[in-house]
Design goal:
alpha+beta; three-stranded mixed beta sheet; three-stranded antiparallel beta sheet; 15 helices
């Protein structure tokens, strides 16, 4: 397995120092930056990723491809799960195996398994998959029949926008007046569209975010109440993890010092019975130091997790900025789902919008019960 060699005396998989660190960095590139397979493969190739079977073998350069990156990121071995035929073993229980990927990380790196565990998939999605994600699913209601409208996307085949995607919401209720042209003409004087373009829906949400100016104080208090208990739990969890990590770091440093002294005083015995221990404990130390640095950052972030009134207003402005600038429908939908409870679509306008708490306290309903633009 890349990043490990087999100890010739025990047969155990041991972290292969520099190469283990390269693969660990590749995992973080995918998790934190959602780097593509091609980008990670180029990084590993430029860094001269090498493999060897045992500590006695010569290194061989590996030529990584995007498919090889995908295979290693979804290989359960790197969490410590070893399969041989029908037999499965947890290496973490067998000896002091150093996993490259934690179970939580492994879950988020696989699309299907992330969905099963209700976790956010951290890999790369192609354009079609991200478009299929949709916008405001189950939140757009037909104003004529009170049914939820379906999100759909259509690729334009002609005109200056050929090749681009058109987003809309479609009413599939055949009993709705939208599908009865004769009745619509009698009642409204014209046919009704079967759906509504997403741009009209998005424009209304944008307009609403621009006018969230009423009752900011009460809304801010409600927002704090909503997230405070969660923040308290997360703070306690980070403190516990930080204490455990610091204890582990002290233990690994003690081991490293012990084997370092033993190697100097008994080089033959060290090579025969303990070869690779220094590399192993050094890799452990580097990994734990990296974890401690991340936990310290998380501790600082959580200490500032409850926003002031001014920061809360700035949070609303950041939502607006996101939907105005982003080209990613997933990112755009995250804002919509945070703010919008549901909305009602009439002809080519939104008649009513309802916001989630606490944002609903910031709307002057006398001015926002009907809107078109």
């Amino acid at each position: 397995k890349k990043g490990y060699y087999k100890d010739s005396a025990t047969g155990y998989y041991m972290p292969d120092s520099h190469n283990w660190q390269l693969l660990r960095k590749a995992v973080l590139m995918r998790l934190n930056d959602r780097a593509t397979g091609e980008y990670i493969a180029d990084f590993l190739n430029d860094s001269h990723l090498s493999v060897r079977k045992t500590e006695q073998d010569e290194y061989k350069l590996v030529k990584m491809t995007k498919n090889m990156v995908s295979d290693f990121l979804t290989d359960e071995f790197y969490t410590g799960v070893y399969k041989h035929g029908d037999n499965i073993s947890n290496l973490n229980d067998q000896y002091n195996f150093l996993p490259l990927i934690t179970p939580d990380e492994f879950i988020t790196l696989g699309r299907n398994i992330a969905s099963s565990f209700d976790k956010e998939f951290r890999g790369r999605g192609n354009v079609a998959q991200r478009l299929e994600f949709g916008l405001l699913r189950e939140k757009v209601i037909c104003d004529f029949c009170d049914r939820v409208m379906t999100f759909q996307r259509t690729k334009l085949q002609r005109g200056k926008n050929k090749g681009k995607w058109l987003f809309s919401f479609y009413c599939r209720n055949k009993e709705c007046i939208r599908h009865n042209d004769k009745e619509a003409i009698l009642k409204y004087g014209h046919k009704l569209p079967k759906g509504i373009r997403a741009k009209f829906v998005n424009a209304h949400i944008e307009w609403t975010l621009r006018h969230l100016t009423e009752n900011v104080g009460e809304a801010h208090k409600r927002y704090i109440d909503r997230i405070e208990s969660d923040v308290v739990v997360k703070r306690a969890t980070v403190r516990r993890k930080l204490a455990d990590a610091k204890n582990d770091l002290k233990l690994q440093r003690d081991y490293y010092s012990k084997y370092q002294n033993f190697q100097v005083s008994n080089p033959v015995e060290y090579k025969q019975y303990h070869n690779g221990k220094l590399d192993f404990h050094q890799a452990q130390i580097i990994s734990i130091e990296d974890l401690i640095a991340k936990l310290e950052e998380e501790k600082i972030r959580l200490s500032n997790a409850l926003p002031t009134r001014e920061e809360f207003v700035e949070l609303i402005n950041s939502y607006l900025e996101t939907i105005l600038k982003t080209t990613d429908v997933v990112e755009e939908d995250l804002v919509y789902r945070e703010v919008v409870l549901n909305l009602r679509a009439n002809d080519d306008f939104i008649s009513v919008i309802k916001l989630n708490p606490p944002y609903d306290l910031m709307v002057d309903l006398s001015e926002n019960t009907s809107w078109s633009g």
